Amino acid sequence: MTHQIAKVEKIRRPAVAGSFYPADRAGLLQTVRDFLKHAHSMDLPAARGLIVPHAGYVCSGIVAAAGFGSLATAQATPQATPEASVQTVYLIGPAHRMPVHGVGLSSAAAFETPLGEMGVATDEVHALLAIGNPYHLVDAAHAPEHCLEVELPFLQTVLPNARIVPMLFDEEVDPQRLAEDLARRLEDDPRSFMIVSSDLSHYLPYAQAEKLDRALLDAIANSDFVTARRGQACGIAGILALMAIGEGLSWTPHVVDYRNSGDTCGSRNEVVGYGAVVYTN
Questions:
Q1: Which residues of 177-209 are buried (b: 16+ CB within 10 A; e: fewer)?
Q2: What is the CATH number of the domain that holds 121?
Q3: Average pLDDT, stretch 34-54?
Q4: Strand order from edge to edge, sheet including 116-119
């Protein structure tokens, strides 16, 4: 059965502005710019993929900025036409609120934040829906979900001309199948990106969390799928998919930052881990 996206203009409104990040435009823009200014940076080639965290900005914003900072140079690349400067970003993260039975897509024409609207690549959404299972329209899952929304202000700041393909997944998704479907698109469009929104271990003592998180990040950096599959991360399926894409397209992973909530926003008794990984050509 072919899914159809309604032709009515639909905007996905922000769900966590004012809780996960500032709700006022000026405050949010200043916050994002400050994070980007002070984030860890590396002199890297052109980025094609990111793994970034999705907690509240006070906890994980500085780590997310280390990943998004690597995309900032992409918008400076000269292009022949304005249309050629539009980057497609496959933005994928775990569905926290409700099952999506594989990959849940959105029928929205744009996702809104206090910084404005970020357009959806509806042609790409249509193309994925045409494949059928595991791709479905699940607007109800997108409405309250924070994991993609918190990445948008960073994208709107560093890649203002980008358009997104918002994708939520659950335990029913096959990372290898997802990798096969997206790799073709990423290979055909060299200015496209994949961003995986994922936190790392949850609610462990500081030292234990750091050990587990660094083992996972080392596995990602070394394309060690066996160890990575044992890692603790809410977005592990997306991470495994990006690892497979990176290996298949000869991208190189770089771990650019790691911290946990014990470093940034709370007690060290029970922490959540945050890592930023950049894949480059």
A1: bbbebbbebbeeeebbbbbbbbbbbeebebeeb
A2: 3.40.830.10
A3: 94
A4: 11-12, 110-113, 116-119
Number of structural domains (the chain) is 1
The token duo for 109 is 């024409």
Assigned domain for 1 exists: no
| Structure token pair of residue 19 | 């809780």
- Is residue 226 one of the residues assigned to a domain? yes
Residue 18 in domain: no
Alpha helices in the chain (DSSP H): 25-38, 57-68, 122-131, 139-142, 152-158, 175-188, 206-221, 225-229, 236-248, 261-264
Per-residue pLDDT reduced to its tens digit, 134-192: 999 999 999 999 999 999 999 999 999 999 999 999 999 999 999 999 999 999 999 99
- pLDDT category, 71, cuts 50, 70, 90? confident
Residue corresponding to tokens 């609120």 = 97
Query: Sign (positive/negative) of CA torsion 61, 89, 216, 101?
Result: positive
Which residues are CB-contacts of 13 (< 8 A; sequence separation ≥ 6)? 112
The residue range of the domain holding 84 is 30-203+210-265
CA distance 158 to 173: 30
Copy the structure tokens of residue 203. Answer: 């609610």
89 found inside a domain? yes
Structure tokens given for 159? 């890649």
